[in-house]
Structures are given as structure tokens and as C-alpha cells.
Amino acid sequence: MRLLASHLEPGDPVLVVGGAGIVVEVEARGWRVVRTAAERPRAVVQGFHPSVGWQELAEAAFALQAPSADGGIPWIATNGDWTIPVAGGIAPGNGTLVSAVHTAVGRLAEFAGKPERHMYDVATERFAAASPAMVGDRLDTDILGARRAGIRSIMVLTGVDRGASLIGADETMRPDHVIEDLRGLAEPIAPLRETFERSTGDTYFEVGTAAVRRSGIDITLVRAGARPVDTIRAACAAVWTADRAVLGLRISDELLAL
Asked: Which SUPFAM superfamilies does the entry link to (predicted)?
């Protein structure tokens, strides 16, 4: 809401796409919630709710027809998650719905939440955190946002992104730490051991009982760890410290199946 406040005056109408939570927050700030472009909103706020349908997306598009540079109204989206995990599998997230409106209007939304840093800055300020850290399960929102905000990031392997996507992650989305689940926050982190074998030119990366070898452009599994997270951490180290981009490496199928 801090972003929205920089654009609005008390009592201004705001077109809300999303659930009751956003409505409550908008009204609590003294703005008037509207649902159609005909009510001449001064801004559009787009958040996620499973009930959001075509009509709501269309009204947002109607209200956003003019580009912001040409006097169009502000468009604030809560987050850009492309997908969300639900009981039945992976479903479209808010980023997918925002993209639908973008396709119709040719404008980009300003994101208040992940992966932009606004939310991280507010949380750090609110709790006066001296050494904040982000714990998340998604590389392109949780971890990328933490990197942009300049705070530590901790990846858990219980959500959308798992071993293969983590091993091949872009530099901007690589976490500082990787743990199996939230229990790992209270457990010591197994050290990473790196050994260079001069006779072959190979480098070995070990975490716990897991071992991964980097030989030229080949990244292969030597020994699986007692815990999958140990093998993943060893593989990440082998890939992330290589002298070339991920696409220039040959990563074994065993590691990509993690």
C-alpha cells in the first residue's frame, strides 16, 4: 500500500482485482473500492484470488487502456508468481493473470511484492532487522527478490523449485543457503569440501557423504548423499563455481533428476 499511497489522495477510487484481503487494506487506507472502469478509478490494484475471472481482468484492462506515460492511471500488482502449488498440482498464479492484462493493454505493472525489493525493505524496517534473511521455495520470486534487496536468502526444497532448477539457476537467483525443509533452520549446515586433483584436473565437491565431480565441462555424480539436499548442494557448487555459463556445461541426467 505504500506504493499506492504515493499516487493517490484520500477518498480516491481504486479498481481492485482480487480477494477480500486487498479490499480490506484499500478501504483501511481511506480509498474507495470500485469494480468497473466506468467508475473512473484513479489506480488499479491487482492481486490473486481463485475466483478472479475474465470480467475482472477485462475491467482492469479497460481502466488501463492509456499508457502511464500518456496520463494513464497507476497499475500496482501484489506479486508476479507465474504459478502456485495447490492440492491438484501446479496452477496459474498472479503473474499469469497480470500477464493476461498486460497482453491486452501493452503496459507493465509495477509490482509491490516479490521479486521487487519493496516488500523486503518494508519488512526489514518494520521489524528493525539487523540481519534479515528470506526463506522461500521459489527462485524467480523469493530468492531473486532477496538478492535485489541485498539480504541473505535461504532456499527450501518443499515447493515449486527443486534440485534441477536450483542447480541450473541463473546467477541472480542463487540462494546463499539450501535446506531440505524448515527444520533445517534449527540444524547445523553440513560443510562443503572442495578438492582439486592435480593429476586429472578434476575438482570434487562433497557435502556429507555426497560427492560430485567437475571434469572440464562435465558435471557428474560420484556418490549420492544420505540426504538429497547434500547431493543438490554439492552439484550446485560444481556448477556455480565453473568458469562458464550453465548452458556450456554437460550436467549428468542423475543430477538433473534430483
From this structure: HAD-like
